[in-house]
Automatic annotation (TrEMBL):
Protein name: TolC family protein
Sequence similarity: Belongs to the outer membrane factor (OMF) (TC 1.B.17) family.
Domain of life the protein comes from: Bacteria
A single MF term (Gene Ontology): efflux transmembrane transporter activity
Organism listed in the record: Rhinopithecimicrobium faecis
PANTHER family membership: BLR4935 PROTEIN, OUTER MEMBRANE CATION EFFLUX PROTEIN
InterPro entries: MdtP/NodT-like, OMP_efflux
Length: 422
């Protein structure tokens, strides 16, 4: 823990030296995920899709508006004194075939689809954010390990410089250790740069708009052992995974669209009522008293277009397509779950093997060879080889812990209980 705090202080010092960020704040995993779910701009934009679908559902309840038409006619009053005429007509289209019901059903299924898409987006965002958090922890651990390795080889180089000044070793041996120290410093700087890039990515996921501030997470990359049960994961995958529910809902949307297509093939009736008035005709040839008329009627289209069933066949094909996609999604999810579960078991064993004194043995061997070298009983090449082996084991173990965390995050998507927290 002390080494982690020291390394964090070194990295914060680097940020201060750069002069880019004037504010730093440490952040736990739970605080980070809360910030992501509340402020991530892509998620905020995605939530509007549900609002749009809800508005479309409200629009589906609309009924056709009635139409009011008025006409005025001059029958030649100035020349023939035939008078004027006025007509007012009110019409209203009555939809038949269950069109309104089909529209509501389709809009409802579209809204449910939008909700599931949002749920899937949240799941993917959670995975992306958790992965980014784990990457920061991994890079931080690697920086700490490489910093310790650099300090060790730097102390060897400084000791060799003194031994060379006393004539105990050759110039070549002193230059060799100094070269290794410079190389270790370059690798450390590269890893620190990678760590800072991971921090910036983390702040982007949080939607942090303050350009002078930087959030620095803390946590443990090495998770406690998790216990996932295959049958439980499989059952949850085929019942509650957003991808599977989304595929199921896609079939329902296609079926609702097919029902609407069939309903649209039914005729619509237009009901009309009319009131008319003709003024008094004062023409001496055929004088006529003023008259008022009342009429009613029905209009219907002649659906010759129903002979063309292309739209109906397209809707039927869309249903079959979505059903095929549902089957493919189910097979893909099961295959993905099998791969992740097997990887989880393998990484669990690999991590346990590393933790069975492998790292401690590598550290003891490196320290022992350095002591032998400083006593003159070993060569610089043996020190370099031991240091390289120690670094490889440390980096490999860190990568295994990172991959184990990732596969646990993937299995959490198929688990009723979230087990991963850093």
């Amino acid at each position: 823990m002390i080494k982690r705090l020291l390394m964090l202080g070194v990295l914060l010092g680097i940020v201060h030296v750069q002069g880019v960020f004037s504010k730093e704040r440490t952040l736990s995993y739970s605080e980070f995920m809360q910030q992501v779910m509340e402020q991530q701009l892509a998620l905020v934009a995605e939530r509007f899709e549900v609002d749009l679908a809800d508005a479309a559902l409200a629009m589906a309840y609309r009924l056709p508006d009635p139409e009011l038409a008025s006409d005025w006619v001059d029958n030649g009053q100035r020349r023939s004194e035939m008078g004027y005429g006025f007509t007012t007509e009110l019409s209203w289209m009555v939809e038949l075939g269950g069109k309104r019901k089909a529209r509501i059903a389709q809009a409802t299924s579209e809204k449910e689809l939008a909700v599931l898409k949002l749920k899937l987006f949240v799941q993917e965002l959670h995975l992306e954010a958790a992965t980014a958090f784990a990457e920061v922890l991994r890079d931080e651990v690697q920086c700490a390990n490489l910093s310790s390795s650099y300090e060790l080889i730097q102390s060897v180089a400084a000791f060799d410089s003194l031994r060379f000044s006393f004539g105990e070793i050759s110039r070549l041996e002193a230059r060799q250790s100094a070269l290794e120290a410079r190389q270790a410093y370059i690798v450390l700087l590269e890893t620190q740069q990678k760590y800072q890039s991971s921090l910036l990515k983390l702040n982007l996921l949080m939607g942090n708009r303050q350009v002078d501030s930087l959030y620095i997470p803390y946590g443990e990359l090495s998770l406690a052992a998790k216990d996932y049960q295959w049958k439980e994961l499989l059952a949850w995958t085929l019942q509650q995974r957003p991808e599977f529910l989304l595929a199921q809902q896609g079939v329902q949307v296609a079926q609702a669209s097919q029902a609407l297509t069939k309903a649209n093939r039914a005729i619509d009736l237009t009901l009309k009522t009319q009131v008319g008035y003709n003024s008094y005709v004062r023409n001496i040839i055929a004088p006529t008293p003023a008259t008022a008329t009342i009429g009613a009627g029905i209009a219907m289209p002649l659906k010759f277009s129903n002979k063309n069933k292309g739209e109906l066949r397209a809707a039927q094909s869309a249903v079959k397509q979505q059903q095929t996609r549902q089957t493919w999604t189910e097979l893909s999810l099961v295959k993905e779950l099998k791969d992740n579960y097997q990887l989880y078991l393998n990484l669990k064993d690999i991590r346990a093997t590393y933790e069975e004194n492998m790292l401690q043995e590598a550290s003891h061997i490196l320290t022992g060879i350095v002591d032998l070298y400083q006593d003159g009983d070993s060569s610089i090449l043996e020190v370099i080889a031991a240091r390289q082996r120690h670094n490889e084991l440390q980096l490999a173990y860190t990568e295994v812990c990172f991959e184990y965390a990732l596969v646990c995050l993937l299995l959490d998507q198929s688990s009723p209980v979230t087990q991963v927290t850093f």
